[in-house]
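I would like you to sit down with the record closing this message with an eye to the fold:
=====
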Amino acid sequence: MAADGPIAWESDEKLIIALDFGTTFSGIAYCFANQRDAKVAAVVDWPGAEGDAAPKIPTLINYSADGKDFTWGASVDKMQDNIVGVKLLLDPSQERPLYLPMLNYKRTLKNLPKPPVAIAADFIGAVYNHALVEIAKVVPKNYFALCQKHFVLSVPAVWSDKAKNATMEAAKMAGIFPVSLIKEPEAAALYTMHSLDFSLNVGDAFVVCDAGGGTVDLISYEVVALSPRLELKELVPGTGGMAGSLGLNQRFEEAVKSLVGDDQYAELRKTKGYALALKSFDREVKRAFRGGEEDEYFVNFPMASLEDDPEAGLEENCWRLTGKELKDLFAPLITDILRLIQDQVNSVKIKRQNNGVTGIFLVGGFGSSAYLKSKVGTQHPGVQVLQPTDAWAAIVKGAALSQLPRQATVVATSATKHYGTKARSVYDSVIDAGVPKTVDPYDGRLRASRMTWFINMGDDILRDQKIKFPFFRSIDENYEPNDLLFTNMLYECADPNAPIHYSKGDKIGINCKVQTDLRSISDDRFKERRAIDGRPYYEVHYDLVITLKSALMTFSLEMDGKPMGSVEASFN
């Protein structure tokens, strides 16, 4: 039977749906890619949200006792024992600064009803399905059904490739496909600079500081073209840390505990007044603070029964916070962010010795802090420090915009690490002194294991550029099919000077395990050789091809420049 019209996957019409999956808040933006002048819009109607329009919802989820049902976002009762910060559990390798309360990762995992990836999948799926319902309200039903749906998720730039892969797995578990990833500061840069393109010049360089709830990400970009579209390139590798505003909230809770004592705090935490106090600090006090030490701020604990402590500013369940006390709460996070920005500025100055930095963009929830802006401005006099009016939306709208390359795109990235493999090289008594050596059973030569770095930290890599890692294997003439299943380790190194030899220290780590399958390849593509003892064998030459997208590496396999066989990467 002939169809009445083209089905969704045959249609050229495309709906882009972007999710800013944040540590504390999450949001959705979307656009119809084929519209002549595509506009990015946000979903602002959420179940349980307060007020008429809520551009973001809390990244919260709460499961029923049997773990089968859950509530999410603004619908969650804040007084329950909710799961918060699940995004951070996708990358436990991130180093927590000393000024944040210690997180017992193993205990946290034990108390979860599901693995973090499955919980993230539940939340992402719920947000996505709700977004589909809301978007369907603004376009004709038939057109909505016709559109291909493409999903894009933003992730911290400093996340490990393993964590990025876990995010992709969460999206797949949620039934979302196709999906792509984009680095959060890249998304923010695209949107912010696209909105300011009337005042940009080719050659301008900006540091983008995305200060969110859990992480702070920084990348610097140079404007390389304005017409016919905005084109940016990364100048130096992205950096970041866990100095987000969630840490400020945690420091506030520690301060409350210190104020009232352990016994009172244990009871206080069970009250609704405590939840209201945390909300007041998060949404009012910390946003209003501008650095004045003599200013006063009041946090109420309604319906609590706290003992008065006038000297500490606690009277009638109301805590009077001085500007100086707030400054102390902010201090370590601000210091960390200023250091991160300074490091980026210094790196840009080294790369662009005659130009330096044109401006600094502060985006994200914490990035909208007036106090943070004033401190950054003081540290960098003469450099424009800009906070977009819709800083909260810069990431999610930029993520949607990234799928409209005719409007704005990042054309090159800067490698954040060295990537390479181990290979058995011909032994050199100088280079390989002290390194174990073996005799090659085929050619009889002495060999030693060395690292070969195909991507080096700071390398400028064009978007979608193919980087080939050449391999060769020796196999017996009478090989079995499974002898053409090869496993290679892809290694990474964050040290500026990547070592020649592998050690089990902290300089080199395993990025992923790559399994290549050449069982479908005929042996006439292999090279016939004779071993030192005269027996015949084959040399199998192939290239592992890596392409660096915005936030994810993709793998393929080639022989003699042609795609062949298959490859699968495992980040476990």
Residues 1-9 have pLDDT under 50 and may be disordered.
